[in-house]
Specification:
129 residues, mainly alpha
Length: 129
């Protein structure tokens, strides 16, 4: 049976909710990790604090980035129509999994970098006085 672009679009659209839920859950957990790292590993000179304002600001910023991620999500169906893979089901599964896990891992880059700087270059947050 010949696959159509409508079938590809339907397949990708049916997984968008799963993608967005993954992004939301990853964002919340990454923010918690950020708070834990900042509260436990940073020196007092770093002046790390989490307030209502910073939480709202970062939340709005993350919602914006979820929007950007959803625009990038269109790379899946577009690439499928350009490549026309011999096995579209396998192509879709592999591309979706790669994109999903990369997108879910990305929010953790901030707490990981913060932890790396505090562990491997503790003077980074102390300033150059």
């Amino acid at each position: 049976m010949k696959r159509t672009n409508a079938q590809a679009s339907d397949w990708w659209a049916s997984r968008r909710l799963q993608y967005n839920l993954g992004l939301i859950i990853a964002g919340v957990i990454a923010f918690i990790a950020y708070i834990v790292v900042g509260s436990t590993l940073l020196p007092a000179e770093a002046l790390f604090e989490v307030t209502i304002f910073t939480t709202i600001f970062q939340g709005v910023g993350y919602l914006f980035m979820i929007g950007v991620a959803n625009l990038l999500y269109f790379i899946g169906p577009i690439s499928e129509s350009l490549i026309s893979p011999a096995d579209p089901d396998r192509y879709r599964r592999v591309c979706f999994q790669l994109g999903f896990w990369l997108s879910v891992a990305l929010p953790f880059s901030i707490p990981v970098l913060l932890a790396a700087f505090s562990l491997f270059d503790p003077n980074y947050f102390r300033g150059t006085e």
